[in-house]
Request: fold
Amino acid sequence: MDKAFVTIVSSIIFFLIEFYIFQSVKVVFSPLPAKWKKRIYFIYWTSSCFMIISYLAFRYAIPSLLPSSYRSPIIVILFVNYFSKSFGLLFLLLDDLVRMIKWILDKTGLMVRAVKKGSDDKQKKGITRSQFLSRAVIVSTIVPAATMAYGIISGAHDYKIRRIRLPLKNLPDAFNGIKIAQLSDIHAGSFFNKTAVSGGVDMVMNEKPDIVFFTGDIVNERSTELRGYTDIFSKIKAPLGVYATLGNHDYGDYHRWPSAQAKQQNLLLLETAFKEMGWDLLKNEHRYIQLSQDKIAIIGVENWGAGRFSKYGDLETAQRGVKDSPVKILLSHDPSHWDAQIRPEYADIDLTFSGHTHGFQFGIETPNFQWSPSQYIYKQWAGLYQEGQQFLYVNRGFGYVGYPGRIGILPEITIMELVKA
Reply:
């Protein structure tokens, strides 16, 4: 579809939303003096025009006029604005639907006028129906906006350490009590607070892990997003090493490249960044970790996701040659891989670490209750899962993508201790 046509139609829709919500603004603030109403109306329409202009800038501005670093904030502002106003819009649409039904009933003679008049008289004793509805529209718009703002300011970098003690059958004696730190879904291109990110890295290192796993999505689209952050993440070290794998965002599949060579070069630069940080990137391969005379296998598979997500992973190649390992630990970004291929075909993989879901960055988690929209998409979306003798742990993610915040589902640092079953 033509870009100009889509932009024009979208802009018209945004204007109509702003105009529609404005009707409630006028009703709510109608009791105020004229000068205050003018100020409020001016603020409303100034912000509304800013939203539409921002959208046009996002669609058309070239990098020299609009640096790429401004694109994410624009997306966030637009999303928060129109997502919040959609709740108020729902109230207005429902009210218009009720009005239309009443109008049809009245015109067809099915509505008794006396009943209608009596209802109107009752409404006149308190606030009018229009005033009540307009207040409901404003409240239903402000509450989501305030909640999302809080999720950005407070939740985006409120790192939570989640501790798991996992008994594993056949775990060698030398590895009893080994401490694993897992990070996932860093999405460096989304960060806006380098100090907070550095603080999260310090939290990892304060745990003094024996080994560290990273399970994919270090960037959103391009390797350049890591500029200014490689020094921070290179602080993550462990006696037994830092092992990583790639996620669906790391391949540059969501960016328009001028050529296939440019896309490939981006991936090579990303792999170089892993080396500079001292992280061992496993691309369909494995490593042995040895303590004393004992060893276990760490397997890293490239992204493999059920459904529409990319399938670069080759688990058969990655695990070839590890039959003799008493314990096999797999790093696979997408948890849908577990049910789709890992469990049915590789019953000897004891423990899989994944990420990808972010827990939707929104939900409710208490000691006795867990809910997120993510659970309607992924069977395994956060925490520890077990089927028979196989385990899967899904990390909620260190960073964020799209919406730069978290509500209820906080960014996670996993600390897992393996013990003999």
The chain has two domains: 3-153, 159-420. Residues 3-153 form one domain. The chain has a mean pLDDT of 90.
